[in-house]
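Ticket opened by: R.M.
Priority: normal
Category: complex prediction / small molecule

The reporter submitted a protein together with 3JM and asked that the result be attached to this ticket for the collaborator who will pick it up next week. Submitted input follows.
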Amino acid sequence: MEEKQGLHVAVVGATGAVGQQMIATLSKRDLPISQLTLLSSSRSAGTQVKFKGQDITVQEAKPESFEGVDIALFSAGGNISLQLAPEAVKRGAIVVDNTSAYRMDKNVPLVVPEVNEEDLKEQQGIIANPNCSTIQMVVALEPISQQFGLTKVLVSTYQAVSGSGAAAIAEMKEQSRALLDGEEITPAVLPVKGDKKHYQIAFNAIPQIDKFQDNGYTFEEMKMINETKKIMHRSDLPVAATCVRIPVETGHSESVYIEVEKEGVTVEQMKEALKNAPGIVLQDDPQHQVYPMPADSVGKNEVFVGRIRKDLDNDRGFHMWIVSDNLLKGAAWNSVQIAESLLKLDIVKVK
Ligand code: NAP
Ligand code: 3JM
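Result attached by the on-call engineer:
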């Protein structure tokens, strides 16, 4: 059989909340894909998935699954990435990893194309896709940093349950139904699958995403802090975060307070900087009640910014509200965008 021209792409975690969006995103974009390999655990192996009109059978992920693969998109949890990403690299693939396994490794570029695409040139086989909450925030921080200088970031998040996977979405829906029907509930997934206690997510807000560290911050909060500094090449930047899970299915929201270096920056100048930046849609017209909301962000690749206003006490302080589809720009779209950048920069070549 004659070999088709194009890339052999693999998706690891193809049956998950992120993996499904990766397949949907790949089918909308025009990366030249000649073969798509879909991988999961043995539980879902055998499932049929449609891609551009073709049925593809999901297979169990094994080291040999990566023979001949050019680009492997991983989103099956950190342990799977630790086990299988090196196996994929050994077989010649470039890995774009969606887990936290390699993000802070100094040999691994952590990339949001609108911010630090050039870092891809330093890749040694594995490229990390940042945490969803980090990605949407740095897309908005970068143009501000470039034009006005950035000296401080304080963020509180309002994160959707889909960030915690398919089981968390199901738990929120079933709990909502049960509570409305006056039934007892038994939380079993959120806030963290493997942690000691589980709490109600329906009609509630849980100030814990991922496990706690000894310093009182959760890992999710530390991901936002450390990853922001790495992506923006600003190890000196003060960043603090509070991450909260709310009963929204998809779309993360963030209330962000920043301080800039330059004096006298106006709200209009801030809006102008954001409006003209790549990947951002400005939705900011309080008179007409225009501002970003998670329900409007679903299915869209952009980061939406609004509610921009000056702090009342600090002339260099600004507040804003940043919203994006956590499964798209926060995960699947950013990964596919990285794959497109790899081609654009000639790091991966089509055979
Ligand atoms: P999910 O809905 O629970 O899906 C998990 C996926 O991983 C499923 O396809 C599952 O396959 C697969 N999987 C589980 N164990 C496996 C194994 N031993 N070998 C191969 N595949 C296995 O979770 P999700 O929300 O899609 O998230 C998946 C991962 O992506 C997360 O754990 C996280 O590390 C990462 N993530 C990153 C971001 C980000 O911010 N960039 C956001 C969300 C998630 P089965 O169907 O066979 O179980
Ligand atoms: C988002 O390894 C795991 O169990 C996955 C935990 C997880 C992560 C992570 O740490 O990779 C769930 C949801 C993320 C993430 O993107 O950081």
